[in-house]
């Protein structure tokens, strides 16, 4: 007999929703971290191509 057979349908649905929400949170966190690293690389590239100009006096 399967262990999930003894659990009510509502409990199964809530558990499934929580698992999907956890997966979404992990993917969102990974995307945020990667976006920050891409932003840092873009800033470095911009500074390489066009260095900061000195301010006029």
Explain what you see.
This protein is mainly α. It has one domain (9-48). It is built from one helix and no strands. The longest helix has 41 residues, at 9-49. The protein is rod-shaped, with a radius of gyration of 24 Å. It starts with 8 loop residues before the first helix and ends in an 8-residue tail after the last helix. The model has no long low-confidence stretch (mean pLDDT 89).
Question: Which key phrases capture this entry?
Answer:
1 helix; 0% strand; 57 residues; mainly alpha
One letter per element, helices H and strands E, the order comes to: H
Rg to the nearest angstrom? 24 Å
Question: Helix coverage percent of residues?
Answer: over 70%
Which residues form runs of ≥5 with pLDDT under 50? none
With helices defined by DSSP (H or I, 4 residues minimum), what is the helix count? 1
The major beta sheet can be summarized as: none
SS-derived structural category: mainly alpha
Q: Could you tell me the mean pLDDT?
A: 89
**So what's the oligomer here?**
single chain
% residues in beta strands = under 5%
Distance from first to last alpha carbon: 83 Å
Number of strands: 0
Count of discrete structural domains: 1
Question: What is the 3D form?
Answer: rod-shaped
